[in-house]
Amino acid sequence: MSLNVCRRLVSCAALVAAACAPVAAHPLGNFTINHLLEVRWQGHALHIRYVIDRAEIPTFQIMRAASNDATWTRAQLRSWADAQAIEAVPGLAVTVDGIHTTVERAGDSAQLRPGAAGLPTLYFTGDYTAQIDARSHRITVEDSVFDPSRLGWKDVVIFPQREPTHELRAYPPALISSPRAVQSASFDLSVQGHVSHVVLNASQGEHAPPVTGSLARSNALTDMFANPNRAPLFVLLTALVAFGLGALHALEPGHGKALLAFTLVGSRATIKQAALLAASLTFTHTIGVLLLGVALFFAAGFITESIYAWIALLSGIAVAVIGARNLARCLHVGHSHHHHHPHSHDLRGAIVTAMSGGVAPCPAAIVVMLAALRLHQIGYGITLIVIFSLGLASVLSAIGIAVVRGSALLGRSGRFDRFAKYAPLVSAVLICLVGIVMVAQGFAAEGVRAPVALIAAITALAIAGYALAPLHAHTHTHTHTHSHTHPYMEQGL
């Protein structure tokens, strides 16, 4: 083996090792704000240590709002720590025997730590005290500094209890899938300073919503993007990783795969139309990343992870509307006296349905976009995002083609003919069900206190009311649709 070949093999091994190195991204997600209260009794005073660990995107928002600089000086960090310490005081509520007690600052510090794609994370610790006389008391400590709906680890620990994260410095892998969600704690304090009868209170159960298991995989791309190595071989490897991660990302829950399949089966689409729908969904995903990244960059203080709840809600409404239209068309076509193809579906409606499932952008891709804007490498960042989306498109197109070919094979069977005429109806019902679930989950994520089942039932009744409306309300629509039939509609969409 020649020396040049050996050198190339060593270089490739080094590049692969760099790409597979442990990522520095926040383990709980790029949008999270994690906070912890540690409480102990000492010297006739309640000592409270408040710890805040902000992930990359909240940190970016704070730094962007404070100044346009890519980094902070020690003076800027010190100024922010002072402001954060003062801001936290009203949210740290201590009641002794039902009476509110004043909380006073005793010291604080802050530091920037490395995160994904070269973006930093902010870490704050603040010490506070509350004076309490030497008698038995029932004490309640509450952390209401942040909106409880914000994603992240939330915990309150009363000494001598221990917490597992070493003050939010290291999150045990076994707990990442179910982060703590404790907002307050109550306990009895004896004259001798002994703590007993500790009760933890959580607004949404003791554990927060689980974190996706693909986080480290997706954040590998952000770390490779932040690597200063711009050698052609490393750039090529980064592009290949972006394509592969996009393909893996398409296999995870979401991204409209179910909607894509239901729409294709119900409309008897061709392979060309399947590729068109997959491309539309991928285009939406890419545009979503670019627009949300730009919005976070230029409107840092106005966007939180709640944007995903709004996206889910609006997407659900769009899917429900399209599903209701398709259902109404299927139910009324049998009663119409006008010639109307039973498998005709609005091509634009099919595209909207498929696109609605992919509009929510991947947080890791947003981090790449923010890093590209911050480091003035917009072209490189957008290129990687497009390659990532192409990987997504390849899997979605393969799914669409498989669905179309599978339907065609089944169509050759005589047994399938009896069920083929019901395919549009079944497709419309399934699309309606997906829309109902998305609407219910969207309202729940927005904090609507009505039960999810009730929201789903109301949405289902609205869809049924539209689909079962009197025939005369749809007759004119069907006539008009037939007189302006698009060529694609005659092919099944």
Helix content: 40-55%
- Major sheet size, sense and barrel closure: 5 strands, mixed
E-strand count: 10
Total number of domains: 2
Nearest-integer average pLDDT: 75
Oligomeric state = single chain
Secondary-structure content class: alpha+beta
The radius of gyration is 28 Å
- Annotation field: number of helices: 17
Spans of 5+ residues with little confidence (pLDDT < 50)? 9-23, 205-217, 337-345, 474-493
Question: Numbering strands along the chain, what is their spatial order in the largest sheet?
Answer: 5-6-2-1-8
Give an overview in words.
With 493 residues, the protein is of the alpha+beta class. The chain folds into two domains: 33-201, no CATH class; 215-490, no CATH class. It is 53% helix and 15% strand. The chain contains 17 helices and ten strands. The chain has helices at residues 3-19, 56-66, 74-88, 173-176, 215-226, 232-250, 257-267, 271-298, 306-333, 347-356, 363-374, 378-411, 414-420, 423-445, 452-467, 472-483, 487-490, and strands at residues 33-41, 45-54, 92-96, 99-101, 104-114, 120-131, 137-143, 154-158, 184-189, 195-201. The strands form two sheets. It has a five-stranded mixed sheet, with helices on one face. Strand 3 and strand 4 (99-101) form a beta hairpin. Helix 5 (215-226) runs parallel beside helix 11. The longest helix is centred in the C-terminal third of the chain and has 34 residues, at 378-411.
